[in-house]
Amino acid sequence: MARLPRLTLPGYPHHVIQRGNNRQPIFATMDDYRHLLGLLHENAKRFDVAIHAYVLMGNHFHLLATPQAEKGLPQMMQAVGRSYVRYFNDLQGRSGTLWEGRYRSTLIQADPYLLLCMAYMDLNPVRAGLVAEAGDYPWSSHGHYAGLRADKLVTPHPLYWSLGNTPFAREAAYAELVRAGIHPDQQAALTQSVLSGWALGEAKFVAELQKRTTRRVQKNQAGRPPAKVVSD
Length: 232
Description:
- Pfam families: Y1_Tnp.
- It comes from Polaromonas aquatica.
- The protein is an alpha+beta fold and 232 residues long.
- The chain has a single domain, classed as Alpha-Beta Plaits (2-Layer Sandwich), CATH 3.30.70.1290.
- The protein is built from nine helices and four strands.
- The chain has helices at 30-46, 72-92, 110-122, 124-127, 142-145, 158-161, 167-180, 184-196, 203-210; strands at residues 14-19, 49-56, 60-67, 104-107.
- It has a four-stranded antiparallel β-sheet, sandwiched between helices.
């Protein structure tokens, strides 16, 4: 069965994950993390993609991003992926692929899923046992939103601005949101949606989304509508 094309539409937030081949490490030094962040910053500007959140793990990374053009996200990911592989292979004296095939992605409904997705990403290092708290991990956007540091890669989504009327109020509200964690069902939905490529959202949102693309947006919409039965 042919693989569905990625669901990518401008103006909507997309959850993206790129894994190392066979779950192998994609970073060897701290400079490697910095280099990938630099490539993301350069190419996000080049292809007009707003990166709202990210986390770089040892063998994969997540992004939450909104492209302004239909091909902006795939063009950015292709440019970043190719450049980083050349950089990494040259330094490590290796050849061949670094990535586990093409990146995975899905489109999500901003409200209620965007802030949940950000928390999901921030808590990835905590779930992996790398740190005790999200703020202790240096390779995510959590520090920017919690007021710990400024991150030039990050473009906040309007929903973040709605958390408070002042920077302090927004930072405190977001830090508390992450500390509270997310429900296992929400975590499972976010994981499954990005791995499967089906849109994540409420029924009305999904129905409106389907009007904008010929690509199926949810699994339960597969196949053609049943033919009308003509009675004798």
